[in-house]
Specification:
The structure is a homodimer of 157-residue chains. Chain A is α+β, with helices and mostly antiparallel strands. Chain A is built from five helices and five strands; from the N terminus they run H-H-H-E-E-H-E-E-H-E. Chain A folds into two domains: 60 residues, Orthogonal Bundle (Arc Repressor Mutant, subunit A), CATH 1.10.10.10; 80 residues, Alpha-Beta Plaits. Chain A is 36% helix and 29% strand. The first copy, chain A, has a four-stranded antiparallel β-sheet with strand order 3-4-2-5. In chain A, a hairpin with a 5-residue loop joins strand 3 and strand 4. The longest helix of chain A is centred in the N-terminal third of the chain and has 13 residues. Chains A and B meet through helix 1, strand 1, helix 4, strand 3 and strand 4 of A and helix 1, strand 1, helix 4, strand 3 and strand 4 of B. Strand 5 of chain A pairs antiparallel with strand 3 of chain B, so a sheet runs across the interface. The structure holds a DNA duplex (17 and 17 nucleotides).
Chain lengths: 157, 157
DNA sequence: GTTGAAACACCCTCAAT
DNA sequence: ATTGAGGGTGTTTCAAC
């Protein structure tokens, strides 16, 4: 079990997975696929939204079709550990739209950023913008040779 | 410039960003925000869909609300480099729903998986399922202490 | 590019069971 | 939980400009 206040049954689960795969499904279709009336289905979606589980939908875009063909994970070790520096660093990262994801991590690195870029020239440009005046100890790019899958739906614990 | 056959102007760009943030926007709202008639806006969305750029929408879900509070990146180095082993390994990974993203990477590791799990016990369980009978050379978990952001919208190169 | 209109699907609510 | 019905909203396609 877990420490959540709300619980979800198998039907909630299936609804969440269906919607994570395709948020464009109509309530009629959704209801049909989970074996509920459209009305009952609506009530569940409403409940899941109220519970803060469903948080809207986002368009899914083909990065390749936009000319973004390279995914790289950038590992960063910093020399500074004060709040002021950290704020400045985060602002820097946030100003770089190529970076789609940003974590503070444990282990031998301090931060990891995921970036999606047109190619190696894009990485070089990003790298330069990233490091300028930040006095980083070490930065290394881990390049995705092949994205086998991404964005798979989450299931309740 | 780049090597794409289709090009996108500023308005396409803004439409794509708006929809990546909120696919639930009505065409009336979209049109208003980019300064187009609803009709012209519809034609652009149609064109972007035909071009394979817009690929539907996906529900956005709050992982914490589902009890999934830990994100970990799993770095894997393998001892095998033949196709049969690789296929078996991919099938193993695909069978683990906690893994949301999977890359073959360059550098000192061979694969990287992103997993979203309830907590450390979930990692241990995942780790055991992952390694069983796969004869991996080395596996290490890089834990996200803080997800500063993720899922930021892509922009054309 | 624009407006306006029509046909249709969908969402949401309510009433009745 | 279910069906059925109604009003309002959104989508898609036209015709005309």
């Amino acid at each position: 079990m877990n420490d959540r206040s709300v619980t979800f049954d198998e039907i909630d689960n299936r609804l969440l997975i269906l919607l994570q795969r395709d948020a464009g499904l109509s309530q009629r279709e959704l209801a049909e696929r989970v074996g509920l009336s459209q009305n009952a289905c609506w009530r569940r979606l409403h409940r899941l939204t109220e519970a803060g589980v469903l948080r809207g939908s986002r368009a899914h875009i083909d990065a390749h079709a936009l000319g973004l063909q390279l995914t790289v994970f950038i590992m960063i070790r910093t020399r500074h550990h004060d709040d002021a520096w950290a704020r400045r660093f985060r602002a820097r990262i946030e100003a770089l739209p190529q970076i789609t994801e940003f974590h503070r991590i444990g282990g031998e690195w301090d931060y990891m950023a995921k970036a999606v870029i047109p190619g190696m020239a894009g990485y070089d440009a990003l790298y330069k913008q990233l490091i300028a005046d930040m006095d980083l100890e070490r930065v290394t790019g881990v390049f995705s040779m092949e994205t086998i899958f991404e964005g798979r739906p989450l299931s309740p614990a």
